[in-house]
Design a protein that fits this description.
The chain is an alpha+beta fold and 262 residues long. The chain folds into 3 domains: 90 residues, no CATH class; 31 residues, no CATH class; 115 residues, no CATH class. The protein is globular and about 65 Å long. The structure holds heme C (HEC) (6 copies).
Length: 262
């Protein structure tokens, strides 16, 4: 079989999945994704299991007309602005990737006002998510990272769910008992790459509220006290090459990173 690759999803921090437009009705999500960790190709999550035909071995077909079909949703979360169907029913994202208007909303009126020098209205015409409450940010960021939904039961044993950071964060006592002072912005700069493997950076965020945490049983001489998140926000690996951070801040048992013991 021969086919081109039309789209590559993922910034490549952890992995990249390829998508090909088949025809007016079908898109194909390739079974082989690139993973940054091992620097090689491996099966795309969700594509495990034996293939019975050659096309099945290549990937999963998505019908764009079907509401449950994931393919339009892939584009919605991984691009900016409305996703349109163009000539030949090809999917056209307005702007690939997560760009300014994903978080700030439409910017046209803001730009017009600023060009006129009308600063007052200019600032009113654009959303500054910095003014949102902690819950409001959970919703705004959760539009793609999944928002907390009180009526939905979450399977806390399924390691895949830990990728839904807003859902987990709101479970923490830190979140529930700090009167809205803990939000995504406490630890993340929305305009800069994620700070990875910098335990000291996150420890400073914790110490804003926990100046001298009481530790009875922890031998810090051995473990290094500064890695607060290493113990209280452990890593979860739902797939050999993907890793997520448990945003349910708590006290965890060794080898039990999914739910805290308290
Ligand atoms: C339009 C959808 C969308 C919105 C809204 C959104 N994100 Fe994301 N975010 C993504 C996607 C998609 C990625 C993954 C990019 C990749 O790795 O392929 C991502 C990645 C991230 C990362 C990891 C970056 C890295 O370097 O690995 C962080 C942290 C993050 N987002 C935080 C936030 C916060 C905080 C907000 C709200 C202020 C937010 N996001 C709003 C879609 C979104
Ligand atoms: C509800 C929004 C949403 C949908 C739908 C969605 N993604 Fe993502 N995707 C994200 C976010 C947010 C991240 C980054 C944070 C994380 O890792 O969960 C991400 C990360 C990724 C990554 C980086 C590796 C990884 O797994 O973290 C790839 C590749 C990817 N998505 C491909 C796809 C493809 C292909 C589809 C459709 C089959 C899809 N996504 C559907 C929001 C979404
Ligand atoms: C992932 C979501 C996200 C994306 C993408 C994003 N921003 Fe932001 N932006 C925010 C949040 C959240 C704040 C509030 C930060 C704070 O208060 O600490 C903010 C604040 C700002 C501010 C400061 C507003 C003020 O009055 O202080 C400006 C200016 C800005 N963003 C411009 C941009 C531009 C330009 C882009 C695209 C290049 C962009 N942003 C992309 C989430 C985002
Ligand atoms: C905005 C303030 C704030 C920040 C930032 C914060 N916490 Fe908390 N945290 C709290 C509050 C409030 C409680 C609840 C204390 C209580 O119940 O008496 C708490 C409770 C805890 C607990 C006990 C959990 C339990 O269920 O018993 C741990 C562990 C913890 N925090 C660790 C951390 C770590 C690690 C960080 C940094 C990654 C952090 N916290 C950041 C406010 C915060
Ligand atoms: C108390 C600090 C803290 C808060 C609050 C927080 N994060 Fe994180 N986040 C982290 C840490 C620590 C990492 C892992 C950094 C590393 O890889 O070294 C992380 C990683 C991530 C990643 C990358 C994928 C992963 O799971 O490792 C995403 C996406 C993300 N956070 C989104 C969010 C969103 C959305 C919010 C708000 C609902 C949020 N975070 C609130 C500390 C925090
Ligand atoms: C080696 C793992 C480990 C590291 C590193 C660690 N903790 Fe803890 N922490 C624990 C355990 C286990 C408990 C439960 C109480 C105990 O056994 O002492 C705990 C308890 C806590 C509590 C609840 C106790 C109280 O004061 O109410 C807080 C808050 C806390 N840690 C914050 C932090 C902060 C902030 C850091 C980084 C400076 C940190 N921890 C580093 C393992 C760790």
């Amino acid at each position: 079989m021969e086919m081109g690759i039309d789209w590559a999803f993922g910034a490549g921090e952890q992995g990249i999945t390829f998508v090909t437009r088949g025809n007016q009705e079908w898109y194909l999500e390739h079974s082989f994704s690139y993973f940054t960790g091992p620097q090689s190709f491996a099966r795309t999550p969700g594509h495990e299991g034996p293939a019975e035909t050659l096309p099945q071995a290549v990937g999963i077909l998505y019908n764009i007309a079907s509401a449950e079909s994931g393919i339009l949703q892939c584009f919605q979360c991984h691009s900016t602005g409305p996703v349109a169907l163009g000539a030949g029913r090809a999917i056209h994202p307005l702007e690939p990737g997560v760009r300014c208007e994903s978080c700030h909303g439409p910017g046209r009126k803001h730009i017009k006002a600023m060009r006129r020098g009308d600063l007052e209205n200019g600032f009113k015409e654009i959303s500054n998510p910095g003014r949102l409450s902690a819950n409001g940010l959970g919703e705004r960021c959760g539009a793609c990272h999944r928002p907390p939904e009180p009526d939905v039961t979450v399977d806390w044993k399924d390691p895949w769910n830990t990728r839904h950071s807003p859902v987990y964060l709101v479970q923490s006592r830190c979140f529930q008992r700090s009167d809205g002072r803990l939000s995504c912005l406490t630890c993340h700069d929305p305009h800069a790459p994620l700070r990875r493997n910098e335990p000291g950076y996150y420890a400073r965020k914790c110490s804003a509220c926990h100046e001298t945490p009481r530790h009875s049983n922890v031998n810090f001489a051995k473990t290094g006290a500064a890695d607060c998140t290493g113990c209280h926000m452990p890593k979860v690996q739902p797939h050999p090459y993907l890793q997520f951070t448990n945003h349910w801040i708590g006290v965890f048992r060794d080898g039990g990173p999914l739910t805290p013991i308290r």
